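Before the break, one more example. Copy the sequence into your notebook; we will annotate it together after we see the structure.
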Amino acid sequence: MKPLKKLIKDLEIIDFFPKKHRDYFYNLEIKGITENSKEVESGYIFVARKGTQFNGEEFIEEAINKGAVVILKESPIKEVEKFSNVFFIQVKNIKKALSRIVLNFYSHPEKELILIGVTGTNGKTSVSYFTKNILNKAGLKTGYIGTIFYETDRVIPALETTPSILKIVSLLKEMVDKNFKACVIEVSSHALHQDRILGLTFDIAAFTNLSRDHLDYHQTMESYYQAKKKLFTCYLKPSGKAVVSQETEYGKRLTKELKPILKDRLILVNNEKIKAEILDKKNGLFLLVKFGDKEYKISTQLYGDYQAKNIATLCGILLTLSYKEDQIISYLKDLKNPLGRLELVTEYKGAKIFVDYAHTPSALEEVLKSLKSLKDNRLIVVFGCGGNRDKGKRPLMGQVASVLADEIILTSDNPRFEDPLEIIEDIKKGINGSKPYKVIPDRKEALKEAIKSLKKGDVLVVAGKGHETYQEIKGKRYSFSDQEEVLKIIREIGG
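Here is what the structure looks like once it is written out:
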């Protein structure tokens, strides 16, 4: 607990009420902070912020009834006389105010940690996960906040890739209390665009790549790119270093735009100096890793051609942390794909079954290209597309599947509030009769059909959901894990 006056000392306050009891409220011991009225407890500050879906100011009365003693808001204070036991504060910028009081409440844990931020369309989960694992193995106790989970000394299910500043800072505080020295954070374009990480600055920022995704939100690729760029222009420490992969034109553009600003603090990977080349991939990637004139051959337990690019980005991050090339190489051999990233779930009837998170055209293309070399017979893909998201990528994913897969089963992903059959119709436009396919909207039945048809030498990939353990249908989340369903089906049919 901390007195209110210590939490609000940096705020740009426009007005407050009641004025005659200011000193009393300033000395109140605050027990917690939230922007969710359902989480309010006695002695809390409720931050009435307007989000993308809800306006917090509509829940002020509910928060007060649950015990909020301070209300932070951006709009003028009026009609609050009936709440005489509550202190209202109007601030100039609610996002800045939220960030400052949270950091003050948790005693600025971000100052005690090396912060590493990773952004990009594809690869940020793998790069972040690998970085966290290697740093821990090297003796630098490191936490993780990202798509598959949040990890301190415990593992917490992730509701979103980059959570609110409230959640992030509370996790950082937990890490500091447990003697962590670093934290790797996946930074999404939504979080950057919304300034969800306001108040944090990173020691290292890494960019993997950029391809079509989230255009339902960003509208254009330019807007999407500018959101990603903010990690380097707004959230990198003055002494911070940037690692930028040259695997896409957007990476090359970012390099050109950052060079005048960062100069020797810019490390480029997936170019002629730092890269990983695939020598063989039948039983995990066998790589030639290059650091300038130095070359190392190494066997790994990784699957997926794209992991070679992720390894180069990982190497760039580790080099900025002053690890030597031979040290880095020694750690690579033990890496395994993260949960739901070309995860080999099992083998059945001599066929390999993978689960992958690929939910963009470029990600699906990378996955299918990677798996083609593993098949001795057919490459079968089961996938759908998320509802209430970028509809333009649906036919593109259908086109990718029709070019690279031998058999396609279209099914439901997270339809949300859309009709699964209408989503499938959009995907079918990209297939356009070029490849036979089946439509089985029930995801479990689609998996069952695919598994029953497997023959020796086949490779089956179930794409789209990866690590997720639910299906989102009409506002509700129903328990569903591709990995668990695959194993359950095999048990049911006598595998």
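The mean pLDDT is 95. Residues 49 and 56 are 5 Å apart (CA to CA). Try to locate both features in your own notes.
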